[in-house]
Design brief:
Strand content: under 5%
Oligomer: single chain
Radius of gyration: 33 Å
Largest sheet: 2 strands, antiparallel
Number of strands: 2
Distance between the termini: 58 Å
């Protein structure tokens, strides 16, 4: 047996022994009366545990409610007895290993003891109805959290599970249901308090029905997680295919790929300067990365040409926004990206392509990319002309403002470049890879998104 397993076993044995001893020394003779109530709670705890559901290695049942009822209506020692009975019955059915069995016994005995002692310390049964209800609910949820911590802590110690993931994926989704069981526990306490133990016979089936509903809810939650995982895998595949196209384009024409990365950096900086949300910035950054992806249809005679294009070749060039948008549209959740890519060659004066839309009819992301695109074509080393200075580029942007480019965005870009000095180093591979950040984008766009 590994040292960690021995440590876990020893700790749980000590916890179990301490719970039993404390429970025995704090019990009163009257805690075990009426016997009928004790038997009814034993049956409820054992029966509900037989209907327990497994959620990623954890068992959920109405047993907890029965134990808390015992803590409120009887005392700590009866609560421990009722908590341990379902574990013993389950051990006969499942034959768990010794470490798991002791861990389960220690966990149930501990939360039963703590719940019972808290009830006694607060003197719940001596309070007015409203305060009693509030006290029972609070003690129920505190003890429930302790129960989860003990059970999940065993997995953390033995299997290396993550606390954060457990709280997020296992505990948080069932809190509303557990709160509901807590409310029903209060209702049963009220009924027993005012009408006698016989009320338990009527109300116990409600706990079992609620447990069945909880089973259904958890099953739906699990199916949702599976669907989320599949969506992420599909997004990864789809995004990977387009990214592969971008990198393939980079192998054919390094200038176009690095130009796209530069435009992405400038466009994202503009979106940030405009005060757009992080999600909107990411949307524009991604669209800028892929704005020229449609150029993969270009033949080398077009892509690498240093001569004037024929009319037929120019028609092919003008088609690349539509081709790129069609490819990107194939990724679920990328409709907004595709729309920006489709319109990045539209002009403010309506003389752009493919649809000749005007002014603010052009999506903001497309107008931002148009400014960044024009600047990098003028200044970038990876373009088809001799790079010009920043001053010359600013002058050219201002000449195009109001016709080709959005004049407000032109001035914002110039101010941004002057004050913040955003730079893309075309010759540095790290700058190119940093703009791609493929794994982060797969994660961000795994879930479907509405088109902007």
């Amino acid at each position: 047996m590994r040292m960690r397993s021995k440590t876990v076993l020893a700790a749980n044995l000590a916890l179990l022994l301490a719970a039993v001893v404390i429970g025995a020394t704090t019990t009163h003779t009257g805690d075990w009366d009426p016997v009928g109530l004790l038997v009814a709670l034993l049956v409820l705890a054992t029966g509900s545990d037989l209907l327990a559901l497994d959620v990623r290695g954890l068992r959920l049942s109405g047993c907890f409610a029965a134990v808390m009822l015992a803590g409120v209506l009887l005392g700590p020692a009866p609560a421990i007895t009722i908590a341990l009975m379902p574990i013993a019955v389950d051990a006969l059915r499942r034959r768990p290993d010794a470490i798991t069995l002791i861990a389960n016994l220690a966990t149930f005995a501990t939360f039963a003891l703590v719940g019972g002692l808290l009830v006694r310390a607060v003197d719940v049964t001596a309070q007015a109805d409203a305060w009693m209800a509030a006290s029972v609910i609070v003690i129920f949820m505190v003890t429930n959290l302790l129960n989860f911590a003990l059970i999940y802590g065993y997995r953390v110690m033995t299997l290396g599970w993550s606390w954060r993931a457990g709280l997020r994926d296992m505990y948080a989704p069932v809190v509303p249901a557990q709160l509901g069981i807590g409310v029903m526990t209060v209702a049963i306490v009220f009924a027993v308090r005012h009408t006698g133990p016989g009320a338990l016979v009527v109300l116990a089936p409600i706990v079992l029905v609620f447990q069945w509903l909880l089973r259904t809810a958890i099953a739906a939650f699990e199916r949702g997680l599976e669907l989320e995982d599949r969506n992420r895998e599909l997004a990864s595949l789809q995004f990977g295919l387009i990214s592969a196209m971008l990198k393939t384009l980079a192998l054919r024409d390094n200038m176009t790929a690095r130009h796209s990365a530069a435009v992405a950096r400038y466009a994202c900086a503009m979106a940030d300067e405009l005060g757009l949300t992080e999600a909107e910035q990411e949307l524009i950054h991604t669209a800028a990365l892929f704005h020229d992806i449609g150029k993969f249809i270009f033949s080398d005679s077009i892509l690498l040409s240093k001569r004037g294009l024929t009319e037929e070749e120019y028609a092919i060039v003008r088609s690349h926004p539509e081709v790129g948008a069609e490819v990107i549209q194939g990724i679920e959740g990328y409709g907004a990206v595709a729309e920006i890519v489709l319109n990045h060659h539209e002009r403010i004066d309506g003389l752009g392509y493919p649809h000749g839309i005007v002014g603010e009819e052009i999506p903001l992301g497309s107008r931002i990319i148009a400014v960044a695109d024009t600047y990098d074509v003028i200044t970038g080393r990876d373009t088809y002309q001799e790079p010009r200075s920043t001053t010359q580029a600013f002058a050219e942007l201002r000449r195009s403002a109001g016709t080709q480019l959005d004049p407000d965005l032109v001035e914002l870009f110039i101010e941004l470049m002057t004050s913040r000095g955003v730079v893309f180093r075309h010759a540095v591979a790290e700058d190119f890879e940093a703009e791609l950040a493929l794994e982060r984008r797969v994660s961000a766009y795994a879930a479907p998104r509405k088109a902007a």
